């Protein structure tokens, strides 16, 4: 059965290959606007033909909408390249639990407030004076990492610049879910999740 990760990488690589084939013809306009228009049309055709997994249909619909409304501003070629690079690295990570540990160690070294020994089951407030902070419920931290792997989804409550968080996670080959403020149990924080084997069920937090 195809996973979301496999589906999104297959799609990204196909889009990049189509863009490369277009460029190889030599008699085409290669501006950002022209490339974005080409990819938008290619995506629309792929969606209509149901060429790719229905797991990514929602993403595909959104990107087509962005391409039509924003043109070059949708940065579709860059989007596909970022997906391909970030996902392929994460999918090769065979020791996700160890990567998470190294990620947390680096956050501490960068003076983040990192709390791993508090059980989080209800709404809480963290007085961190606006510093970058991350909280993982001790039940999840102590019980969901085994033999250097993540065995159940782990929720990270984070307060920080989202792109800096994305950069740190990508450095350690971690895929994080999109941040969700409504789902967070810590005030002024967003909830992110790490899934076993980096198998996110929807589009992960991407680097810009």
Automatic annotation (TrEMBL):
<protein>
    <submittedName>
        <fullName>DUF2913 family protein</fullName>
    </submittedName>
</protein>
<dbReference type="Pfam" id="PF11140">
    <property type="entry name" value="DUF2913"/>
</dbReference>
<dbReference type="InterPro" id="IPR021316">
    <property type="entry name" value="DUF2913"/>
</dbReference>
